[in-house]
Design a protein that fits this description.
Helix 3 crosses helix 4, helix 7 packs across helix 12 and helix 9 crosses helix 13. This protein has a seven-stranded parallel sheet with strand order 3-2-1-4-5-6-7, with helices on both faces. With 396 residues, it is of the alpha/beta class. It has two domains: 174 residues, Glycogen Phosphorylase B (Rossmann fold), CATH 3.40.50; 216 residues, 3-Layer(aba) Sandwich (Rossmann fold). The protein has 14 helices and 14 strands.
Length: 396
């Protein structure tokens, strides 16, 4: 049995952290797994059943401090690798990858590209590509860019694991404080994610305000579920006059009872890796709409044939018109510069609102998309993820 170490900077709420913790548990029957974290700051995930090493070297500001931090982390990681006889080390995200590739002590190195943002720093991309035995990508789009732009072919695609059956069971758990639970029209839009600018929530809040200009859509509500104070977005909703129609229920250990009666799940992100929340919304049986950002939504919502056709037409850019795919709706990606000025409504905000209106207008189509989305979510099973990852590890 091989000794495998997983490295993650933090255990706060996030898709990257969720996948790492799941991976540690899924690999346990096949490997001796160590989970190494840089700090317990803002810890969200319960890891009582895992073998965790916390080196407690949190992030620090400033170039010199960052460099010193990296050196300290590398020394600490090397020490743990030697003490535990680590055979393979798999790091999640750019910060962890940087420490991992410099901390090799005879082990095999896997670096994980879990977000399209990981591709922005070309020096780091080249460093990881040269020093890794295998680069694990969460989408085909990311692997394709590494192949085409950087010439790296030591890549493998591994979609994030999803417990679709478990999610469907969690839908029925009690949750007394669900926003808009008495909205009999059922026109609640939901999105799940922490208060981060890349989520593009200002576009979604403005779109709801635009929808309210039409009397037939004044019943539409919005619930944004996740960690953070959302101060800017609360202020935006107030400025747009829809504060009572936008809810911020906060982070939930089980968010699924908060989405089960929603009309649709909307992902307005301007970039992602593999958007776990989108797949989770599909598993919850919601029809879904997502911006065609890099990366993930295109692969999740389209059939293989649709994906190949759209990617041939738009290999490095977003679609320019909405696409009703086999499992959900893609809409053009939008500006990534945060704009919470309630007086500034752009043409793309109005286009986005129009796409949502069209999406909500056909109940039969929504029902069909809901059923197909739930079926599609089963493709991302933990079993498939584990089998693929174990096979990768055995080949090293």
């Amino acid at each position: 049995m091989k000794n495998v170490m997983l490295i993650i900077p933090m255990l706060h709420q996030g898709g990257l952290e969720n996948v790492c913790v799941q991976t540690a548990r899924l690999l346990a029957p096949y490997c001796r797994v160590t989970l190494l974290v840089f700090t317990y700051k803002d810890k969200f995930f319960d890891v009582f059943d895992l073998d965790v090493v916390n080196i407690e070297i949190p992030a620090r500001a400033g170039k010199l401090r960052k460099a010193w931090n990296l050196l300290r982390r590398v020394r600490a990681i090397r020490r743990v690798k030697r003490e535990r006889g680590i055979d393979i080390t798999y790091s999640f995200g750019a910060t962890a990858n940087l420490a991992n590739v410099f901390a090799r002590v005879g082990d095999k190195i896997l670096t994980g590209f879990r977000s399209s943002v990981d591709l922005d720093n070309e020096r780091q991309v080249n460093l990881f590509g040269r020093r890794s035995d295998l680069v694990v990508c969460c989408t085909k789009d990311i692997a394709g860019i590494l192949n085409r732009k950087f010439g790296y072919h030591n890549t493998a695609v591994l979609y994030n694991p999803l417990d679709a059956t478990g999610i469907q069971g969690k839908l029925q758990a009690p949750a007394p404080d669900v926003p808009f639970a008495d909205n009999t029209a059922g026109r609640v839009l939901v999105s799940i994610g922490r208060d981060d600018d890349y989520k593009g929530y200002w576009h979604l809040i403005k779109a709801v305000a635009i929808l309210h200009e039409d009397p037939a859509y004044r019943d539409v509500k919005l619930s944004l579920i996740g960690s953070g104070d959302y101060r800017d977005y609360r202020t935006l909703a107030e400025g747009l006059g829809i504060a009572e129609d936008v809810a911020f229920p906060g982070v939930k250990e089980n968010p699924f009872p908060y989405v089960k009666n929603a009309a649709a799940f909307i992902l307005p992100s301007n970039h992602e890796g593999f958007p776990n929340a989108l797949a989770e919304g599909m598993a919850a049986g919601l029809p879904v709409m997502a911006c065609d950002c890099l990366s993930g939504p295109r692969e999740i919502l389209l059939s293989e044939e649709e994906y190949d056709r759209i990617s041939a037409a738009h290999p490095d850019s977003s679609v320019t018109d909405s696409v009703y795919g086999a499992y959900g709706v893609l809409v053009p990606n939008m500006r990534d510069v945060k704009d919470t000025n309630p007086s500034h409504i752009t043409e793309e905000d109005r286009t986005f609102a129009g796409e949502i209106k069209e999406f909500l207008s056909d109940k039969e189509r929504l029902q069909s998309l809901s059923e197909r989305a739930a079926k599609r979510s089963l493709s991302f099973s933990a079993k498939a993820y584990t089998e693929s990852l174990v096979e990768m590890l055995e080949r090293l």
